[in-house]
Amino acid sequence: MHWSQTHTPLGSVGVSALFIAAGIAIVVYGMPARPAFASAGYGAAFGLLPIGWLILNAIFIYQLSVETGQFAVLQKQISGLYATGTALLLAGVLVMLQAYVRPGMIPPLISK
After folding, report:
1. Per-domain residue ranges for the chain?
2. What b/e sequence results for 75-88 when a residue is b if at least 16 CB atoms lie within 10 Å of its CB, and e otherwise?
3. Model pTM?
4. Is 36 exposed, middle or buried (0-12, 13-18, 19+ CB in 10 A)?
5. DSSP assigned state of 11
6. Measured distance CA(106)–CA(88) in Å, rounded
């Protein structure tokens, strides 16, 4: 049986969940409205800042490696993994590890 939700009261599931959580904090726990929504903003910033920081650093490292010519070296090393079959061995090990960990912790690398 497949269940799909077609109704989103506020246009987005995330926004709906935010308002439900804020409503519970305000009504059930007696939290003032302003700190309840301020804590939601702080939580969003706390969650998005590390992601943005990682993306910014990845862009910086990529640009640095392209300018210094090290990106070509990295491409050559990665293509060497595929030529020797090491990448297939690594993918096989990761697939075997999936049997011992929670489903979804290690995403499958082979999508074919």
Report:
1. 13-68, 69-112
2. eeeeeeeeeeeebe
3. 0.48
4. middle
5. S
6. 16
